[in-house]
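Hello Y.,

Per our agreement to keep a running log of every chain we model this quarter, I'm adding this entry. I've kept the format consistent with earlier entries: sequence first, then predicted structure.
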Amino acid sequence: MNDTIAQISTPMGSGGISVIRMSGKDSLKIAQSIFSFNKKPLVIEPRHMYFGRINHNGFTEQCLMVYFNAPYSYTGEDVVEFQCHGGEYLTAQILNACVFGGARLAENGEFTKQAFINGKISLDEAESVIDMINATSDAELKASSRVLKGELFSKISEIQKNIMDAIVNLEVAIDYPEHDDEALGIDNMVRVLEDSKKVLKKLYDTSGNGVLIRSGINVAIVGKPNVGKSSLLNALIGEDRAIVTSVKGTTRDTLTETITFNGIKINFIDTAGIHESVDEVEKIGIKRAKDSVGNSDIVLAVFDANSPIEQEDNDILNLVKGKKVINIINKTDLSSNNTGLLGIEISALNKNNIDRIKQEIIDVAMENKLDFSGIIITNTRHIEAIKDAMDKIDNLLKECKSQTIDIIDMLAKDVWKTLGRITGETENEDIISGIFAKFCLGK
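Predicted structure for the entry above:
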């Protein structure tokens, strides 16, 4: 496609500046038709900022223009960007001027898609762009930035190269059986597959933490009525979000609040006190509380430091069996720990040990394995492709013991293609278009 595309690249609304971007072979020609220079240069130099005016449809706007020549641009094509005052209507009029000059409106993510098509960026790197844009925590940003730097592409491409080299050896043996030993070709394939699986397994093992980084750690706060669950939520998020009273059953529904601690998102779910009740509304809240336990990554089981364990407390302990649980002994400002349970002793009222709870949540959820010195896989599509490739490698290793060399060759090519879904080398056009459709306009 040789047409020139244009779109607003900054968020819609009023602001200090707006950026309108064009990409395509006619970008500079269109820009020169609508932009007049305060001091017209003899030659438009790439990566130089020029001050001038856009004149279109009866209005004049002072703005800046910069030109990036192909292939030294984000898209790999000629690119022009205008920086103007950040008025919403004004910005739209400058975009209209670009379209009037011969550009067409870009679709969602089309600039980045052109960068992918022109070999400026791999598919996994392109996806990391949108992941960085959508990041809401330091951990998400760090994980996405490592993919954008090309670290995942490098590892996957190396595995693909090794598998393709092994495939070539097999095909030489197929085409020239009198010169090559089939057994040696298969043995080499087995070695390559086993080494590849080790690398993929190491990447896949980061995906558990990757999912938590992307979605946040879901933490259910549970306990019997009046143990201080809502007070604990307020202390954890640093504001009075949940209603706190001495009346039993004040909380009748779940309440979710999200914070970021040490770069990690934590989603706290305050729940209704779990106990036997005849109140229909409260019973619904109690059911939702139990459902929250099942859907959580971590459970904060809250107990009152002032009393020994009662039947309602035992019901809580039974409910959370099999989950990752942190016992919280609350109200230690009133009494020492009389529960007989080990846990983090706190006073939600005085807010002591609150940061300790947050760090313990991260340590328990991620099993102390969070390491930003390497790649952390957060993208669901990448996780699925890596898992699929590992499963196919396992199957191929079994087939290598009994199948003919041509079948092994065919199955090895399927592994190579599966890995290509990550880099974009083998993904089909519909899926690629679907990925870029998730991007915002102007990116």
